[in-house]
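G., the chain you wanted modeled:
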Amino acid sequence: MRDQSDNVPGPWVLFAPIKKQRAKLLIEKCTELGAGLFAPVLSERTESGSVSGCLGSATASDNSLEKLAFQAREAAEQSERLTVPCVVPCLSDVEASANVNLWDVKELLKQWGTTEASGKGRILMVCRERGTGSSIPIMTALENNARHSMDSAKVAFFIGPEGGWSPEEEQLFDSYASESPQSVMNVSLGGSVLRAETAAIISIGAWALQSGH
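Predicted structure as tokens:
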């Protein structure tokens, strides 16, 4: 079994930090379903307690990011995967330590598609509540992507915080999806308001079903 820190394959899960136990569930189930990388991204409504829950403190005894990486390894072994997904604090350097500054929504959208580390060649599917904005059903989005991409795994799902995306973030998503539809797309997971871990699991599960993974 090997880590996927080099040339990370598989779909990515980018998520606003959530509480530790829920983050562990997100990592575990999405790993079982085939996720290749996990990275927290700050949003306007991210709670400070959720950030420390995901990343921990600067002390070695409280490095929650390493604990999440261990969760990914355990889940990979349980599901008999040959590779272990990366759990990184920042997409600009998959080898970074937990002591780096997390990207926020604006930085992610600004950097998206500029380098391999920040999603070059991957489409960013922003999961929106109740199909707001220019969202299309996630299965439709995945089917469209598979028809136009040589690799259906070249996708990243962006999961919002507990309080949902802010109005400013919603406008940013609509703007980038309109200007760069080959790089950013708004997708709907249905009519219900979902917890972050549920949204992530549904997203990766939809990809697994569509791709036959």
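Strands lie at 2-3, 12-15, 37-40, 83-84, 86-87, 123-128, 136-137, 155-159, 184-188.

Shout if anything looks off.
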